[in-house]
Write a structure and sequence with these properties.
The chain is mostly helical and about 270 residues long. The chain has one domain (about 40-135, about 155-265). It is built from twelve helices and no strands. It has helices spanning about 5-15, 30-35, 40-55, 60-75, 80-90, 100-105, 110-135, 140, 155-175, 190-195, 195-240, 245-265. Residues about 135-145 have low confidence and may be disordered.
C-alpha cells in the first residue's frame, strides 16, 4: 500500500468510527505522519454531512435536520473530541496546580464545567448551523463579488467543509508547535512527538486550498481568523498545562468548529 494512502487510512481510523483495516505494523512515526491527512479526513466528514443534509431535507424541516447533522457527526467521530473538551474544561477550571489538573482530566467522571461546556458548545453549533441552513437569502448570497468561491454551493455546505477541515488542521498545528504535557504518555503522545513542520505544511496547504475552493477570498479570511484564535487557545493551554494532551487536541478541534461557523456567519 502506498505510504500516503496508508497514512490517510490511519488518520481516518483515529478520527472516525468508520471501520478501517490497516495492514502490517503501525509505528508511532507513522501515526505522527498521518496528521498531514487530518484536514482531508475533515473534508470527507463534511462530504458525508452534506449527503445527509440532502437526504434529510427531503422530508424534514431545517431545524430538525440541523439536530440530526450534529448527531451524525457525533456518531461518525464517536464523540471523541467532545469528550476531550469536557475533560479539558474540568481540568482548566479546577484552579489546581498543573499536575492535579492533568489528573482531573484523566478522570472519566464528568464535572460541572465539562457539562456546561458541552451544553453551550452544542447549542451554539446547532444555532449556527440552523442560521446557515436558512441562508439562501441576500444576507449571504446577494451581490457576491467574483472570486468568492464556488458560486453554486450552499452556505451551509461550504461551512460544513470549512468547519471540519479547519478544526482538524488546528490539531495538526497544535501538535506541530507544542510538546506533550504528560510524562507518563497517552493517546496523543505519538502525534505530538512525531508531527513536524512537514506534516503541518501539508495540512496547511490542503486546508488553504479547500478554503479557497469552497469560499475563495472569504474562505482565506476565515482561515486566518481561525488560525489566530487557534494559536491563542494553544498559548493559553501551554501556559496552564505546560503542553498539550489528547484531550486538549480534541477540545481545540471542537472550539475551532464553532469559531469557523461563527466567523462564516459574521462575515456573511
Amino acid at each position: 500500500m502506498k505510504d500516503g494512502m496508508l497514512r490517510f487510512l490511519l488518520a481516518l481510523q483515529f478520527l472516525t468510527t468508520i471501520p478501517v483495516h490497516i495492514p502490517g505494523r503501525v509505528t508511532n512515526q507513522m501515526l505522527g505522519e498521518s496528521m498531514a491527512y487530518f484536514p482531508l479526513v475533515g473534508a470527507l466528514l463534511g462530504g458525508i454531512l452534506i449527503l445527509a443534509h440532502f437526504i434529510l431535507t427531503s422530508f424534514l424541516p431545517a431545524n430538525i435536520v440541523c439536530a440530526f447533522l450534529i448527531l451524525v457527526l457525533i456518531l461518525l467521530t464517536g464523540a471523541l473530541h467532545l469528550d476531550g473538551l469536557a475533560d479539558t474544561l474540568d481540568g482548566l477550571f479546577s484552579r489546581k496546580p498543573q499536575e492535579e489538573m492533568l489528573k482531573i482530566m484523566k478522570d472519566s467522571r464528568l464535572g460541572t464545567m465539562g457539562t456546561l461546556g458541552l451544553i453551550v458548545l452544542l447549542l451554539m453549533k446547532y444555532q449556527l448551523l440552523y442560521t446557515l441552513s436558512t441562508a439562501e437569502t441576500p444576507f449571504f448570497e446577494g451581490n457576491r463579488p467574483p472570486g468568492w468561491g464556488i458560486p453554486w454551493i450552499r452556505p451551509l455546505h461550504a461551512a460544513l467543509i470549512l468547519m471540519l477541515m479547519l478544526s482538524r488542521w488546528g490539531m495538526v498545528m497544535a501538535a506541530g508547535l507544542s510538546n506533550y504535557a504528560r510524562s507518563d504518555g497517552g493517546v496523543g503522545k505519538p502525534y505530538a512527538e512525531h508531527t513536524g513542520i512537514r506534516e503541518l505544511a501539508i495540512a496547511s496547504l490542503t486546508t488553504l486550498l479547500g478554503a479557497l475552493l469552497f469560499r475563495g477570498l472569504k474562505g482565506l479570511l476565515i482561515f486566518v481568523i481561525v488560525a489566530i484564535l487557534g494559536l491563542l487557545f494553544l498559548w493559553y493551554v501551554l501556559k496552564r498545562l505546560g503542553g498539550m494532551t489528547g484531550d486538549t487536541y480534541g477540545a481545540l478541534g471542537e472550539v475551532l468548529e464553532v469559531l469557523t461557523l461563527l466567523s462564516y456567519v459574521a462575515l456573511k
